[in-house]
Amino acid sequence: MTDNSGKILKSIHPARIVLPIFIGIAVTGFMLYREYEPGSLSLLSFSLQSVFWLLVSFLFMALRDFGYMIRLRILSGKVLSWRKSFNIIMLWEFTSAITPSSIGGTSVAIFFINKEGVRLGRSTALVMVTSFLDELYFILTFPLVLLLIGRSDIFSLDGSAFTGPWYHNQYLIFALTGYALKFLYTLVIAYGLFFNPRGLKWVLLWIFKLPIIRKWRPQANESGSELIQASREFKTWPFRNWLKTFLATALSWTSRYWVVNALIITFFGVSWLNWDEHFLVFGKQLVMWIMMLVSPTPGGSGFAEYVFRGFLAGFIPAGTGVAMAFLWRLVSYYPYLFIGAFVIPRWVKKHFVTRRKP
């Protein structure tokens, strides 16, 4: 792999937390100014029970990261300690939080893992397998949730069922398109990892002969070589290891989505036993996740708050959606900015500055 240390270190500078924080607060403030209704915030009830469920929402985020740490430990053959796994996850989440999309994210993740003592080939394989498992969780969970819910209002903005032809529902079309792309991506990764990595590399190089993307052909060649290495690493992995890593993946993503459910219980007193409503909220978040993937802002900042307010309107009283969206991001997004800003200087000092001393 090309040594991109300087470029990567520059891209994860702690000062870059300023832009996503500014965008998120600016959009939240603008929406509050436009949509605030006098007395609406009084609907956000707060009690000892609320404190409990607010802590539960933070616990879900901790479980999310814990699941990722378990997965890293298994995939690395326990070469990565709990401390190293924690650092990698925080750095990885910080990078995701300050960049508009996953472009370049793979190289950064490989960089982090390699610097923590995992050889380059296995680091590459590890990151590719995590991507495969993440997508596999989504393509298995989304249809299962739709089947369990059996309701059309999962694709509505106001909580009411959509009564027109299915092809007139833009959110349904958007979700199905995103699902199809994820499904195709998962098939490609699975084919490349387990059946024909060299053939997939050849296809990549052929595609990158096109004039418009030809300048990225060296990177495509590099990615193809990494894919071959990944296949060698994991093709003969025992089933129990795959099961463990998938369950860790399921723990991470399910915990992430249930943060919103905990916040709704926190402020609006919805019973945690009302599983029908909670599954609907869970399903809506799967749809929201597709929308956030196409956001041009760092970490979906601003866009996520806007989508949250509208897409979960059926569960949040009028006038409180913006405040709830901000609280959601306060639990699930902003902590990674500050934790990452704290971890990065110490991590860089350990792996770069200290080594340069005579």
By DSSP, the count of extended strands is 0
Largest sheet: none
Distance between the termini: 27 Å
* SS strand fraction: under 5%
Overall pLDDT: 74
Share in helix: over 70%
Question: Unreliable segments (pLDDT under 50, ≥5 consecutive)?
Answer: none
Structural class: mainly alpha
- Count of helical stretches: 14
Give the topology string: H per helix, E per strand.
HHHHHHHHHHHHHH
Globally, the shape reads globular
| Oligomerization category of the chains in this entry | single chain
Tell me the radius of gyration: 21 Å
Task: Give an overview of the whole structure.
This protein has 358 residues and is an all-alpha fold. The chain is 71% helix and 0% strand. It has helices spanning 5-11, 18-35, 48-75, 82-98, 105-115, 120-149, 170-194, 197-207, 217-234, 239-268, 275-293, 303-311, 321-332, 334-353. Helix 8 runs antiparallel to helix 9 (217-234). The longest helix is centred in the middle third of the chain and has 30 residues, at 120-149. The relative contact order is 0.17. The model has no long low-confidence stretch (mean pLDDT 74).
Concise synopsis of the structure shown:
The protein is mostly helical and 358 residues long.
Name the features.
358 residues, mainly alpha, 0% strand, globular
List the helices and strands and how they pair.
Elements (H helix, E strand, L loop, with lengths): L4 H7 L6 H18 L12 H28 L6 H17 L6 H11 L4 H30 L20 H25 L2 H11 L9 H18 L4 H30 L6 H19 L9 H9 L9 H12 L1 H20 L5
